[in-house]
Amino acid sequence: MRTLLLSCVRSYKAFHRLQHSPCCFPLPAVTRKRFTVLRCMSTHVCKEDTSYYITTPIFYVNASPHLGHLYSAAIADCLHRYKLLKGFNSKFATGTDEHGLKIQQAAEAAGKDPLQFCTDVSLRFKHLFSSCNISYTDYIRTTELRHREAVEHFWSVLWNKGLIYKGSYEGWYSTQDESFLTPSQVGDAFDSSGKEIKVSLESGHKVDWMMEENYMFRLSAFQSQLLDWLRGNPCAIQPERFYHAVLQWLQSDLPDLSVSRQRNRLQWGIPVPGDLEQTIYVWLDALVNYLTVAGYPETHDKWWSVAHHVVGKDILKFHAIYWPSFLLGAGLPLPKTIYVHSHWTVRGKKMSKSLGNVVDPIECSQMFTTDGMRYFLLRQGVPDADCDYTDDKVRKLLNAELADSLGGLLNRCTAPALNPGQAYPSFCSQSFPRDQGGRAVAEDYHMLDAVKNLPSVVEEHYESMHVYKALEAIIACVRQTNGFVQRHKPWNLDRGKSKDQQWLETVIHVTLECLRIYGTLLQPVVPEISNKLLSRIGVQPGERSWGNTDFLPKFQGKDCPFEGRALGSDFGVLFSRLESPNADKQKPKPTKKAARSK
Ligand code: MSP
Fold first, then answer.
1. What is the pTM of this model?
2. Most ligand 1 atoms within 8 A of CB, residue of 314, 341, 350, 352 to mutate
3. Low-confidence ranges of the chain (pLDDT < 50)
């Protein structure tokens, strides 16, 4: 990560020098073109702005939402909440992708009017997001008028620049992926009835040969600009593995791209402006949603210049090749970052409706709680590699980390037996001096160091979308704090002796301070649990931002605003342990008498 950051800084410096170099002009046309791209990217990097715009992919409405969809949305939601905590003015867009052949066919199969069909499924996504605390600020549907206007305008810009021409496409098309494929991307397979078919080697979905008069986009003209963009912006696609994958793809020639379908084949979409016989290709239509939300074609600069996309690895080609080429063609800045994540599998297979292995995220969040599911997905989901889902994994992880480690720690220092005053007690600097000499031991000082550094460690991981690493670091500190309490056993101290009483209060004060930091840093991932934790330890809503993560001020000789404060009154457990479904069967059945007396 550090290497990546350094190379970003280096490339920014290089652009900056280039921009201010007095001998830049006149440049040959090709160099000038490249220079324009570089400069446009350098404004991206150097602009000190507190605006932030994050998007999820917009979801196809051909089927109900599944766990993979919630995962994309939870990552974006986490980044949005994190930026808000950092004081940014953050915009967070999600929504549904409602046009195209796949949706047209799904509506037909359901015997429904396409718009009604889209509305029904789109509402299911909305329902999922509100029940999982996905705090989007804009929900876009591609069937909205504002989007149609944006797409028509975008098309006209490309057309007027001569980047779209009438041609014909002959080749493979996957309706399931809404994607054109070259012969090398296609292989042989058998369908369920044993018939030989052609499939996409990447997705495994069936492909069909098509031959149509279409409008074509001059994708081939953008190859070198895309390479310049990526070489100059090593942070543009994260994690690094996907950045290298895109660079690799760009080593082969890019064919021009068909950006429309004949209207007689595809009616469910936006007609090509000025040609009612053609419908705009669904990916061009869908990608423009990011601009629509930014306010395109009107005042979009404010948000568009700070755009970041979260996407699954299956749609990287569309976001890292097609989309930047369209944007370069339209003379618009490129997204600042494309964050890529891998997939959730079930018994090693990608979750999909056709395989019948779909995990219902609503059912899961009812079983494991909303925050439980958010925590599991973001703690267990590794962006670089696929992860296999099982209910049992969820139960084990949540019991160990949320119920036992974090919940246990909160319980220990707020339980009336140990904290009868129900307050944030005082810190005694003689008991825990800055230099050794009090009652604290070397491991305690190590723990303080770790918690002090935790906000910057977590920040680095949130910034690079390695949420699981942020959570790993937090939970490691939670364990250290549990070790601290366990080591000093405050419950064995004698309250009658003033030195013991001071040390007891100090141990609780330090533990509450640790919890305050953990609760604050966990807000982007588990907002409800964090709220419960922070309220219980008396931290007010205005004291929960990144700027409030100054740890243990008393140890640094500063005032602590929390000292002496009353704890909150909610005594409930932070996170209840989850029983496995057959645990009940193992328990002895109550006798008839016991059941009657209940
Ligand atoms: N409609 C397009 C995106 C257009 S964006 C301009 C699309 N939709 S989708 O519904 O198929 O996928 C939406 C997101 O869900 C993608 O990021 C995709 O990677 C993600 N997931 C779909 N299945 C998934 C898993 N099994 N696991 C994790 N995420 C996966 O593509």
1. 0.88
2. 314
3. 1-47, 591-598
